[in-house]
Structure of 4-hydroxy-tetrahydrodipicolinate reductase:
Amino acid sequence: MVKIAITGINGRMGTMITEIVLSQPDMELVAGFDLGGVGRQIGKITVSHVDDMDKVLKEKKPDALIDFTIAQAAVQNVKTAAASGVNLVVGTTGFDAAQKEEMRSAIHNGKVAALISPNYSVGVQVFLKLLKEATRNLEGCDIEIIEAHHNKKKDAPSGTALKAADVIAETLSEKPGYVYGREGVAPRGKEIGIHAVRGGDIVGDHTVLFACEGERIEIKHQAHSRMAFASGAVKAARWIASQKPGLYSMEDMFKE
Ligand SMILES: NC(=O)C1=CN([C@@H]2O[C@H](COP(=O)(O)OP(=O)(O)OC[C@H]3O[C@@H](n4cnc5c(N)ncnc54)[C@H](OP(=O)(O)O)[C@@H]3O)[C@@H](O)[C@H]2O)C=CC1
Ligand SMILES: O=C(O)C1=N[C@H](C(=O)O)C[C@H](O)C1
């Protein structure tokens, strides 16, 4: 049995991940944490307040903790889990460079295995590969990234849009800067433009526009359901539970 704990268990993603975990014959939900809904019964567990995480993790000893919260909370959750020797799957987005470094060092010091990805859908992994291929063949074209999400999303631009920009930047022979939105007198340079749209119940759209002389290409991924992310995160938890200590990416998981 793979024993799973979830932080942000009452959230949009936490709720869906819980459903999937409970339906897996080889998985057991052993703990769930959030700020509210404490004491709520889910399957065999009761939701704990995140402040009790250290104590509950030591008692329940999960094989992996899945975190979908907000950046500031996720950093703290990673530190607590890693210090208790619990492996991690982090789906939260919106980290700055210092927060990423804090998580890396906690994972290293705790000698745990962790997968951190802004997007757990299979389609997005293919989308990122297509971006590499397009970038290699379209050097010199202008590149704009447009993402759209629901009106409850807290961070902008999305973690996936930033990952797409990084993949493109690493592939280009000259590393470009990023421009977030455009306004005023702003002539275009070599930069990658990144634009965020927020509205309604859009699950998650990412479009990369390669605008060239006389033609253009758009590469687009659209999620129709959060199930695409949630099922990937549960698969990642099963995978990370048997990995050696270290920080992993979705590419590592799909290599196998
Ligand atoms: N990697 C991927 O594939 C995907 C990533 N995401 C990312 O996942 C994150 C969560 O998204 P979503 O589920 O839509 O957001 P929600 O706001 O629906 O859920 C987040 C949950 O975490 C709770 N929370 C806040 N702080 C803490 C804390 N310190 N400890 C435990 N729980 C806490 C929130 O409580 P409260 O509401 O009371 O604040 C809420 O219940 C976002 O960063 C989003 O960008 C989303 C989809 C896919
Ligand atoms: O907050 C969301 O909903 C999503 N967030 C992730 C991101 O920021 O990239 C992934 C997905 O697009 C949904």
In short: Residues 93, 118-119, 149, 153, 158-160, 204 surround LZUJQKHR (ligand 2) (CB under 6 Å). The first strand starts at residue 2 and ends at 7. The chain has a mean pLDDT of 97.
